[in-house]
User: Fold these one by one.
Assistant:
Number 1:
Amino acid sequence: MRPAGVALFTLTSAVAAAAPSLGVLVAARAFQAVGAAMIVPASFGLLHPSFPKRQHTRCGTRAQD
């Protein structure tokens, strides 16, 4: 899911940068949000095991072990 999210975010960033109208810009930004939503949970999943259990709230994860 993470590579697809990165690809979507990157592609829609380029579309937003070259947007010829406000409508295209708004649509691109909406799809950027979808891409970002696909990236963030995967990032937390990668961070979570890197911290000791007592520090899980410090790394922004709240998953239960």
Number 2:
Amino acid sequence: MKRITKAAVILGLAAGLSGCKPDAETAAELRSLRSAVTEQAQAIAQLKVAHSKLTSDIVKLQEDVFNLRWKDASSDDLAQTAYLSLTDKGYSVAEMPVGSVLIAVRDVTPYANGVKVKLDVGNPTSATFPGLKLQVAWANAAPGTKNYDSNSHQKKEISISGDIKPGAWNTEEIILAPAKPDQVDYVTIKPSAPRVVLRTSPERK
């Protein structure tokens, strides 16, 4: 009887030891998996940081490109650009090959999906301009300033059909759209005159 009991104990210990081997392997595999998961989590975190920096660099590069284009747009040939703030009084001078014009903001009101800007266009020359073409760009603030947001930048060509009479201020209206009122403060206008009308001298009548 004692021999049978001893054999049973030995068999039980052997079975226990053999059963511990798979548990030890499972524990090792779990440790390996945890380590792999930790490494992957660290790699993902590093990728997120790199992606965030890359996105920031792309946005900065886009703003730099836009600023360069904005500056270049005002220096083409002989035409110069008028720089205006819709909240400040005063006029800006825009020079064309056929003469200069003065541009000032008289009034700004919301209009549909944009804003209506009433302009005073002064013509100090002795010629009449039968309409003007305006290359207009606008943003919430001047490029390079603290509040400037490149996403607010818009541009379009606007034609003025009325005569810009000589030696006088001429009132004209333009619509800047699409834009919200708080997205429009800084405006640049580069005019061109497709036609010029001069007074006929008495000798030529």
